[in-house]
Amino acid sequence: QVQLVESGGGLVQAGGSLRLSCAASGRTFSSAAMGWFRQAPGKEREFVAAISWNGGSTYYADSVKGRFTISRDNAKNTVYLQMNSLKPEDTAVYYCAARVRALIDSRRLTATQGYDYWGQGTQVTVSS
After folding, report:
1. Phi and psi for 90 in degrees, rounded to 5?
2. What does the DSSP 8-state code read for residue 102?
3. From 124's CA, which of 19, 20, 48, 116 has a CA 20 to 30 Å away?
4. Contact 125, 11 (CB under 8 A)
5. Nearest residue to 74 (alpha-carbon basis) of 51, 53, 101
6. Are 119 and 20 in contact (CB under 8 A)?
7. Distance between alpha carbon 17 and the CA centroid of its chain, in Å?
8. Quick check: 45 and 37 in contact, CB under 8 A?
9. What pLDDT does 99 receive?
10. What is the mean pLDDT of each run of 10 residues along the chain (128 residues)?
11. What CA–CA distance (Å, rounded) separates 22 from 36?
């Protein structure tokens, strides 16, 4: 199994930056695709970014392209989300997720159902 713990959330002004971290347990991490999702009050959980098991492929929601960067360090069992040029609409609880099943279609990484394990979430608040 994989256990995930997010950190790095906080309160920032619009235009500022934050880097979220997700620490994973187990030896499975190195072969797991990873994703970031977010959920704002009153809204469904939505896809933010994903990265393949070896970091060779990344995927982003249109709303964050050019502003957010997902990366991973398998030696540290950690995935990151660098968030720049933050906007008030980025305010949400951000969740880290891991997929350990074989991936046959990368589009599955854009849906919550594509993941097997989830972290507890970390709050990101962007003030205007």
Report:
1. -80, -10
2. P
3. 116
4. yes
5. 53
6. no
7. 15
8. yes
9. 92
10. 93 98 82 94 97 91 98 92 98 96 87 95 97
11. 9
